[in-house]
Every structure is written in structure tokens, then in C-alpha cells.
Design goal:
70 residues; alpha+beta; Alpha-Beta Plaits; two-stranded antiparallel sheet; 14% helix; binds iron/sulfur cluster
């Protein structure tokens, strides 16, 4: 089974590399000027790549919402 990974919309990616810089898990890499999420990468699900992307090319379907429970 593949690990949960960020989804990258190649049509929106401008190859700025910000997501690669922010990712501390080595999941994201540049290939021919476009970012790629490597299968088998150890994504830490931090969602920082989605936050820094200026074009909205990355989405993190695994986003976890933590709620305070009274
Ligand atoms: S969610 Fe975090 S660990 Fe996973 S690819 Fe994005 S920046 Fe890297
Ligand atoms: S931050 Fe967004 S536009 Fe920049 S390389 Fe990553 S996916 Fe592409």
C-alpha cells in the first residue's frame, strides 16, 4: 500500500522549489523543473508544502484537524 502523499497539480506548479526547501522529510524533489513526491517517501504529514506553495499546486488530503474537547 502506498503511503499517503501530497497531491501535486503539475499544471499549477511553477517550479519555484519552495516546497522542496521546506520539506524536512526528503519526500519532495525537483525533476525537470517540476516538483515530484517520491513514492515510498517518509512524509511527516506536516502540510507545510501546501502552506508555502504560492500557486496552490499542492494539496494534502491527509490534513488532520485537532479539536479541543471540552
Ligand atoms: S506534508 Fe510535510 S513532510 Fe509531507 S511532503 Fe509536505 S512538507 Fe514534506
Ligand atoms: S511550491 Fe508549489 S509552485 Fe513551487 S515547486 Fe512546489 S508545487 Fe511547484
Amino acid at each position: 500500500m502506498n503511503a499517503l502523499m501530497p497531491l501535486i497539480d503539475s499544471a499549477k506548479c511553477q517550479g519555484c522549489g519552495l516546497c522542496v526547501e521546506i520539506c524536512t522529510c526528503g519526500v519532495l524533489t525537483m525533476v525537470d523543473g517540476m516538483v515530484t513526491a517520491r513514492n515510498g517517501g517518509k512524509c511527516g504529514w506536516c502540510t507545510m508544502c501546501e502552506l508555502v506553495c504560492p500557486t496552490g499546486a499542492i494539496s494534502c488530503p491527509f490534513e488532520i484537524v485537532i479539536e479541543d474537547i471540552d
